[in-house]
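Now for one protein, fold included:
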Amino acid sequence: MEVILASPRGFCAGVVRAIEVVEICLIRYGPPVYVKHQIVHNDYVVSSLEKKGAITVEEVDDIPIGSRVVFSAHGSPPKDYESAANRKLDVIDATCPLVTKVHKEAVRYESQQRRIIMIGHKGHQEVRGTMGQVPMVLMDDREKSRLPAWDKDTPISILTQTTLSVDDTAQAIKQVKNTFTNVEVRNDLCYATTNRQESVKKLSKLVDIIFVIGSKNSSNCNRLREVSESQGIPAYLINGPDKMKLEWLKGVSRVGITSGASTPERLVESVIDVIKPAEVTTLSGIDENVSFVLPKTLRE
């Protein structure tokens, strides 16, 4: 049996930065360090940080007054910063810079008196953070969303969640442009999302099955599974070898493996160890030479 690895796969620059922020805080200030929402959507990463003294919470009001808190990579609405100020919390913002860019775009479009449509998944932390910036309407590509009954010439700007399906997002944008005449599109899908989905499309032409390594609540991991299935290849989203069933490998000669932007490479390696392939090869892919600076307070 042969294993073929997608490339690129695994951690993106925003995830590396967010994890590093928590680790530096734990070393510099000592535990506990509170983290509002999972720092990234991977159970293994979150558990590893919690063992070092991080405490994950969902609500700012659950954090003791005067504590230190890291806001997750997905971004947070302004009301969370206001609550943190009221509780005298020391906030260290680990929001991915690409998400912060979307927040700034939202504010700019609102100042230009453009109506905003956000293409994203209802309830996702990133969507909650972006929609909290200024008034906007959500269009969820998983549902038959009705577009607002605005005049067809209404100035509209489209923002997108960074971790959506490339193809589904294109369809949603097309629907808006077919309905309104004055549409400005900011397709904010991040480089990691786009590159990993393109790699899976290439991988699907070479293998019998694909394992996407990552957590069930990871948007970009779920999209990788969906992309594989859209290419006619069965795919399973697992966060490690303990979730893998060997019966899935019956009659399989080539196994494809990829991983989401919040998945550490050690989980990929552990799955390969269980499969015990005769050969492991890696697809050629885009070299992601991307990095982000740390928050100013942690750059010393």
